[in-house]
Amino acid sequence: MSAEATSPGAPIRRRGRPRIDLRRLGRVALLGPVSRDRLPDAIGHVAEAHRAHHPDADLSILRRAYVLAESSHRGQMRKSGEPYITHPLAVTLILAQLGAETTTLTASLLHDTVEDTDVTLDQVRDQFGDEVRYLVDGVTKLEKVDYGAAAEPETFRKMLVATGDDVRVMSIKLADRLHNMRTLGVMRPEKQARIAKVTRDVLIPLAERLGVQALKTELEDLVFAILHPEEYERTRALIAAASARPDGSGAARRDPLAAIAENVTTVLREAGIPAEVLIRPRHFVSVHRVGVKRGELRGTDFGRLLVLVGEDADCYAVLGELHTCFTPVISEFKDFVAAPKFNLYQSLHTAVVGEEGAVAEVLIRTHRMHKVAEAGVIALGNPYAADSGTGPQTAEPADGERADPTRPGWLSRLLEWQQSAPDPDTFWTTLRADLAQDREITVFRTDGGTLGLPVGASCVDAAYAQYGDRAHSCIGARVNGRLATLGTVLSDGDTVQLLLAEDAASGPSPDWLDHARTPAARIAITGWLDTHPEDAPGPHGGRTGTGQPSQGHSRPGPQQQEPVGAGAAMAPDGTATAVVDRPDATVRLAGCCTPAPPDAVTGFVVRGGAVTVHRMECPAVARMRSAGRSPVGVSWEDSTECRVTLVAESFGRPRLLADLTEAIATADAAIIAATVEPPSEQRVRHTYTLQLPDAAGLPALMRAMRDVPGVYDVSRTRHPATTA
Fold first, then answer.
1. What are the distances in angstroms from CA 203 to CA 12, 171, 255?
2. CA–CA–CA angle 454, 456, 461 (5° rounding)
3. 27, 370, 504, 552: which has the fewest Cβ within 10 Å?
4. H-type alpha helices, 186-272
5. Does an H or E element contain 115, and which?
6. Does residue 598 have a cis peptide bond before it, meaning omega lies within 30 degrees of 0?
7. Distance from C-alpha of 568 to C-alpha of 634, rounded to nearest angstrom
8. Rounded to an integer, what distance in angstroms lies between the CA atom of residue 46 and that of residue 148?
9. What is the DSSP letter of 619?
10. Beta strands 611-615 and 359-366: pairing type?
């Protein structure tokens, strides 16, 4: 955390009290050893940092917690050789400097006592109350699970559940990981790398989502130094060179960012706008990213200007003056004041051109916005404090879940879908993908409610966000009053109405997975398809029983076939019959893989005793075998003719359709039906149902279609294997 951000909610320039710079401490851990001549009076530093944010705080509870923690950990040592008490003290100091309230700091001091000493949760409750006990228990549960590779998914599932009950648990965990990362040098390189990767994949995105930028940026730098040491050293050298550039006379060259900062200060003073203009140095990872993006770093790329004002309206007044008195870079303007990020972040971003063409990025925010930008949910205090001011609410609802007013919407949704994740690997993969989404939109429901969704979400995502598993029967949507396909991508502020089929037993199409961005939707769709292989839809997205294709328009193609008699089913062309080894069974040809002669096929008994016939390579076959279902023998009656549905994927160009149909006709195949989807990103999908006089000619036909210029793939219709 930068020096000016240590106490963002208070006046920036203080006198008479040295301040502890979190970022400096973090860089010390990277740049070299620290003198261990003596231990500082850390509890004094904690109390001082806490009073800077909470002048009226009762420090007696912190002193009692320190006495208990110090006496309990006495004799224990860290791997670095320091007394163990230095760890909970350092974690608590990090949180105190970010403005955490007294209850959080008390729990932080005690967060390892229950796990590593003889102190019990009952003792914690008797001495410090239910709130502190609750937080200590939450952090202890996270620490009880090993961070080995096989245990990581379940570890973080537990972490998220604990975080959802109280976001302060995650705040303590993030500060705990930061201090551990600062002292990671005593571990073996391979263990450093493993911990750094977990931190990168999950904890840093969680810090971003909780808005705790001060922790996130330092964690990024520490991970960067471990996983990319060469790039880190180059970046550090660039920063060192930028901070001391001698000119010909040996004097330090003037910082171009400082010159622009002086001009901005003068402009705002003359305009009568009370504001502080500060230079905010970029951290290592930020400098590295700018260098990768631009190729060559400019003098102003090593920092940004931070303008702090008193009121929201002053932010826009500052923006107006800057854009009037300097040349603005319009493409760099972003308004996160009127439209805050999902992690509570608010600020105006712009860039202006100074002397000699130097471009400076500028952040404009109030002191309160700055505090929240640095500390996120930590800056919001105790979410369970009673409005009457009588103290924390210690009672919990009967169901055991506490309603947290600071819980972000994305966290509530994450807690919901994690319960449906079928296995740890699916959870882990989906979690990382979900955390990678860094922007959200808000769409409105017709009943007046709202839905928070990631950017790029479709009507499919909205359906599952609103209805859960009931969305399986969704058949369409209206977006802003107009009919839309379920694959329609939603924009911020859209109004969406989801249309459900009367038949609640109907299910989704595998095509929906192509449009689902949210984990909740993907897990629900995949789960339904895995448990209903016999109800697999047609090759183009149509669902048996609903009459509605997933894209909102009809397309030809074979569905599951009606039986022609006991123990046999007619192929789509009416020329061949699949015969199974169960004479009395009703037989259907699966729509998921559209088997046809001379495909190698097998069958499985489904609901009602019917047998569904699949191609051997169909993903449904592997799923049913893994579920312990026994296959049924299937054979084809003699026939040479074949009807098959092919999908051609191609880049759009003139005469493409004519060339494809010519290639088909040259192969002596008859086109029974054809569909061309609207181009998407210059790509076109053609679907042909073809009649071949001889099934042996199918491979040659597919090669001929692939040889058409612009066509990059031709395949038999098949629903994709359902994966998370």
1. 29, 11, 35
2. 65
3. 504
4. 189-198, 204-209, 213-227, 229-243, 256-270
5. helix 113-116
6. yes
7. 9
8. 33
9. H
10. unpaired
165 noted as active-site residue? no
Q: Which tokens belong to 337?
A: 């004041």
Contact by Cβ (8 Å): 368, 377: no
Find all residues with CB under 8 Å of 145, minimum gap 6, and list them: 151, 154, 155, 158
3-class secondary-structure state, position 288? helix
At 611, list the tokens: 């047998």
8 Å CB contact between 30 and 73: no
For 196, how many CA atoms within 13 A lie in the half-sphere containing its CB?
A: 22
Among 331-340, 561-570, 578-587, which is the least confidently predicted range? 561-570
> How many other CB atoms sit within 10 Å of the CB of residue 93?
25
- How far is CA 150 from its chain centroid? 21
| Interval 470-481: pLDDT, tens | 888 888 888 988
Largest CA distance in the chain: 100
3-state secondary structure 34-80: CCCCCCCCHHHHHHHHHHHHCCCCCCHHHHHHHHHHHHHHCCCECCC
The residue count for the chain: 724
Highest mean pLDDT among 18-32, 437-451, 549-563: 437-451
What band does 225 get if pLDDT is binned at 50, 70 and 90? very high
| Cα–Cα distance for residue pair 541/528, rounded to 1 Å | 15
pLDDT in tens, 229-238: 999 999 998 8
Strand pairing partners for 477? Answer: 484, 498
Q: Beta partners for 495?
A: 444
Looking at residue 349, the DSSP 8-state letter turns out to be E
**In degrees, to the nearest 5, what angle opens at C-alpha 450 toward C-alphas 448 and 454?**
160
Say which of 21, 116, 154, 416 is annotated catalytic. Answer: 116
Report the C-alpha gap between 487 and 409 in whole angstroms: 23
Residue 384, pLDDT > 70, answer no
Confidence of residue 270 (pLDDT cuts 50, 70, 90): very high
Q: Which two tokens stand for residue 26?
A: 């973090």
Of 327, 392, 323, 315, the residue nearest 357 (C-alpha):
327
Nearest to 189 by CA among 152, 226, 147: 226
Quick check: 13 and 21 in contact, CB under 8 A?
no
The rounded distance, in Å, linking the Cα atoms of 691 and 295 is 56
Contacts of 658 (CB under 8 A, 6+ apart): none
Distance between CA atoms of 663 and 302, rounded to whole angstroms?
Answer: 59
For residue 379, what are the contacts with CB-CB under 8 A and spacing of at least 6?
A: 9, 98, 99, 371, 372
Which tokens hold the place of 514?
A: 């192509």
379 half-sphere exposure, CB direction, 13 A CA radius: 26
- 116 belongs to the catalytic site: yes
The gap between the terminal CA atoms of the chain, to the nearest Å, is: 37
| Catalytic residue from among 115, 231, 514, 641 | 115
- Count of beta carbons in the 10 Å neighbourhood of residue 281: 17
